[in-house]
Design a protein that fits this description.
Layout (H helix, E strand, L loop, with lengths): L3 E4 L9 H16 L3 E6 L9 H14 L8 E2 L4 H13 L3 E4 L3 H13 L22 E4 L6 E6 L3 E6 L7 E3 L7 H11 L4 E5 L6 H11 L5 E5 L2 E2 L15 H6 L4 H9 L13 H7 L10 E2 L2 H14 L2 H14 L7 H11 L6 H12 L7 H7 L5 H13 L5 H14 L4 H13 L7 H8 L1 H12 L1
Parallel strand pairs: 1-2, 2-3, 9-10, 11-12
Antiparallel strand pairs: 4-5, 5-8, 6-7
The chain binds one RNA strand of 78 nucleotides through helix 4, strand 7, helix 5, strand 12 and helix 10.
Length: 460
RNA sequence: GUCCCCAUCGUCUAGCCUGGUCCAGGACGACGGCCUUUCACGCCGUUAACAGGGGUUCAAAUCCCCUUGGGGACGCCA
């Protein structure tokens, strides 16, 4: 049997990294087996759902390279399907109408809590044989005794005492289906073979298994993956910083770094840290998923990102960088120039935004001069040398790193001066800063005209 | 409160299923050093963990139990 997995986001917010990781695992499981990976938008919460979020989630999926089969399914378009199945449950006696009001049910729960047991509906309408009516809901006639066992792909068998569960609502008084019912009907009718989701859904599973049984559907395999926590070990939330995938994209994180980072949270393959998409497809195994929650480490993401930046294709980086620089007012940059200095920035950038920060010194007409640096290095003692170096550069017809460096060294040797004397002054003159890539590689990348202009600006 | 899940360096983890090869390995970080014209890259090294207690066993990070801690779920949200 071919594998079919799904990712079922609720469009009440952007795709966050926890959801993204679940999606990655599902995608990997299906793709490595040549199976299908489908999307279902759980938009039944009409108050909080927004079409813009759906678009954002799909965009983040594409960014991460998680492609899906078929068109996404929207739950709001399937209400009649859900109702048809609920009706069949009423007919076969696995569900019943209930006239209890929310207030009455709440009172039952309160009483249970006071009695020290699990809050639940007491099933008083189970055998009343009620029919439809205003304000009435349909409930599952759940087994009263026994245990429901879920054989989880990552946790192994987990048993639940049926007495712990109550007769959950399947259809609300406004005729809409509840989450657990919709999920079961969807997963079953969509032919999902492996349900991969966060382990905050473990307690939903026995309820859903009861619905599968009541409907006569075969059970899929369940795999509950551990959650991602913030540095304080609490459920990841906005106060921990960026949680949405698109925010990382905006920070200049490369998708392959994000993917690599996320997949290693809860999963590992020996001591390997770096995984290409192909290696992931080759080595991923749901059986080697861990069971414990993990803390998202931004430092490791940055390390991974720098690794991928160092390996990335120049044309791609040039495109990415030009976009960021464009937003900062540097439009129409020459691609050739970008590609000349990007290699110097690659080992110095953990994100594309960091690269852009440093690229400013290459693309600005007149890079901002760090005042303290200028005062310290652009002195009466050093300026004459800078002027002389400018003359040497001007005379050079081979504007390459090596001959230029040799020429400057020859000049210094002749005067019995140390290179250190002019190194920082030259750097400040060229970039306005005290930290930068190597001097002569920058000189070559900037080109004669730009270099001379900058030297003359400070040395007259 | 009730139920469920989880538990190895600060963090991600290997090892656990199939006890001995583990005075516990790798990676990120931190710290130190090398390289060096600055900053990085790179290279080398150091730091640091089997939550606690009981068992079982010749032998336990590995198996069992309890405790503790953390997380999650208990909704006419998803």
């Amino acid at each position: 049997m071919s594998i079919v997995t799904r990712f079922a986001p609720s469009p009440t917010g952007q795709l966050h990294i926890g959801g993204a990781r679940t999606a990655i695992f599902s995608w990997l499981l299906a793709r490595q087996a040549g199976g299908r990976f489908v999307l279902r938008i759980e938009d039944t919460d009409t108050v909080r759902s927004q079409a813009a979020y759906t678009e954002g989630i799909l965009a983040s999926m594409k960014w991460l390279g998680l492609d899906w089969d078929d068109e996404p399914i929207y739950q709001t378009q399937r209400f009649d399907i859900y109702n048809k199945f609920i009706d069949s449950m009423i007919e076969n006696g696995t569900a019943y109408w209930c006239s209890c009001t929310p207030e009455e049910v709440e009172a039952m729960r309160e009483a249970a809590r006071a009695g020290g047991t699990k809050p639940k509906y007491d099933g008083r309408c189970r055998e009343r044989g009620l029919g439809p009516g205003p304000g009435r809901v349909v409930r599952l006639k759940a087994p009263l005794a026994g245990t429901t066992i879920m054989d989880d792909l990552v946790h192994g068998p987990v048993a639940f005492d049926n007495a712990e569960l109550d007769d959950m609502i399947l259809r609300r008084s406004d005729n809409t289906p509840t989450y657990n019912l919709a999920v079961v009907v969807d997963d079953a009718t969509m032919g999902i073979t492996h349900v991969i989701r966060g382990d905050d859904h473990i307690n939903n599973t026995p309820k859903q298994i009861m619905i599968y049984n009541a409907l006569g559907f075969p059970l899929p395999k369940f795999g509950h993956v551990p959650m991602i926590l913030g540095p304080d070990k609490k459920k990841l939330s906005k106060r921990h910083g960026a949680t949405a995938v698109y925010e990382y994209e905006a920070q200049g994180i490369l998708p392959e770094a994000m993917l690599n980072c996320l997949v290693r949270l809860g999963w590992s393959f020996g001591d390997q840290e770096i995984f290409s998409r192909e290696e992931l497809l080759q080595h991923f195994s749901i059986g080697s998923l861990g069971k414990s929650a993990s803390v998202f480490d931004n430092e490791k993401l940055l390390w991974l990102n720098q690794h991928y930046i160092k390996e990335a294709d120049l044309d791609r980086l040039a495109g990415l960088l030009a976009a960021i620089l464009g937003e900062r007012g540097h439009a129409g940059l020459d691609a050739g120039y970008l590609k000349a200095f990007i290699p110097l920035l690659q080992p110095r950038s953990r994100t594309m935004v960091e690269m852009a920060d440093q690229a400013e010194m290459f693309v600005a007409d007149e890079p901002a001069l760090d005042e303290a640096a200028a005062a310290k290095f652009l002195t009466e003692e050093t300026k004459p040398h800078l002027a002389e170096i400018a003359r040497i550069f001007e005379a050079a017809d081979d504007f390459q790193q090596e001959p230029l460096e040799a020429a400057v060294k020859a000049y210094l040797d002749a005067k019995e001066l140390k290179f250190k004397l002019v190194a920082q002054p030259l750097r400040v003159a060229l970039t306005g800063r005290t930290a930068s890539p190597g001097l002569f590689e920058m000189v070559e990348a900037m080109g004669k005209e730009r270099v001379l202009k900058r030297l003359k600006r400070v040395a007259g």
